[in-house]
Write a structure and sequence with these properties.
The chain is an alpha/beta fold. The chain contains nine helices and seven strands; from the N terminus they run H-E-H-E-H-E-H-E-H-E-H-E-H-H-H-E.
């Protein structure tokens, strides 16, 4: 580590410097709220130039201003619009070398035997097909740059069934991300492209507000989560920064669970 002159800031230790992303172009989907927004802020805080992608243009614009990034309004369930995302980012910010697929939704909350076909397809298109297509689109940029990092955001619903919350197509799409992760990691390793998944457990967000406001639901969450605190979107930022940065340069093809111990019981 180099010396510094008197009065200059203390340099970062080597271990922390590995988390820096100075000047790297990153794309974060689902960034208008919750986990996606927290991840966009986290990446920007360590120097990345972040393009935030979601449907809600007004919220995206405010976030982009705060992090000095780029807002790309897009319905990721629309195949034609998905194809426009990476070219728009590459033109405005430069070639993306980080992709965080955080967008996802439970679009068909019916019992498995009652899920309509259009709901199943819409869920798979948003949660699995769109991340795959975006990964395909960033591939040539990462290949030409000599490497890159893709992080999919899955869910513990792709690993365990959750009593009382019917979500068959959602669970299938999220487990599918882990399979996609392993396959892309192997195929693209020779290009220096790492692909991993983070699988969050339950956490406070706009989508889960009702779950946390109902006392019976909160008691159920407390009984089933070994760590005695509620998870928040910020609790997942560290795991994604590790996987997206040089700190995780020898990690690929993995699904990292961040759930307060829920699946460890």
């Amino acid at each position: 580590m180099s010396d510094t002159s008197p009065g200059s800031p203390e340099p970062l230790p080597d271990a922390l410097r590995a988390f820096r992303l100075d000047g790297r172009v990153a794309i974060v989907t689902g960034a208008s709220s919750g986990l996606g927004e927290a991840l966009a802020r986290g990446l920007a805080s360590v120097g990345a130039r972040v393009a935030v992608v979601a449907r809600r243009r007004d919220r995206l614009g405010k976030l982009a201003e705060r992090i000095d990034g780029l807002a790309v309004a897009c319905d990721l369930g629309d195949a034609a619009r998905v194809a426009e995302v990476v070219p728009a980012v590459a033109e405005a910010l430069g070639p993306p070398v980080i992709l965080v697929n955080a967008a996802g939704a439970l679009l068909s909350p019916s019992k498995a035997e009652d899920e309509p076909l259009d709901g199943i397809r819409a869920t798979l298109d948003l949660n699995l097909v769109a991340p795959f297509r975006l990964a395909q689109d960033v591939f040539p940029h990462m290949r030409d740059a000599g490497g890159g990092a893709i992080v999919h955001v899955s869910s513990i619903s792709g690993r365990v069934g959750v009593p009382g919350i019917p979500q068959a197509s959602y669970a299938a799409s999220k487990l599918g991300l882990s399979g996609l992760t392993a396959e892309l990691a192997v195929q693209w390793a020779r290009h220096g492209i790492r692909v991993n998944t983070v699988a969050p457990g339950f956490f406070r967000s706009e989508i889960t507000a009702d779950l946390y406001e109902d006392e019976r639901s909160r008691a159920w969450l407390r009984r089933n989560t070994p760590l005695p605190t509620d998870g928040t979107p910020d609790d997942y930022v560290g795991a994604v920064l590790w996987l997206a940065s040089d700190a995780g340069r020898y990690v690929t093809g993995q699904t990292i669970v961040v759930d307060g111990g829920w699946t460890a019981r």
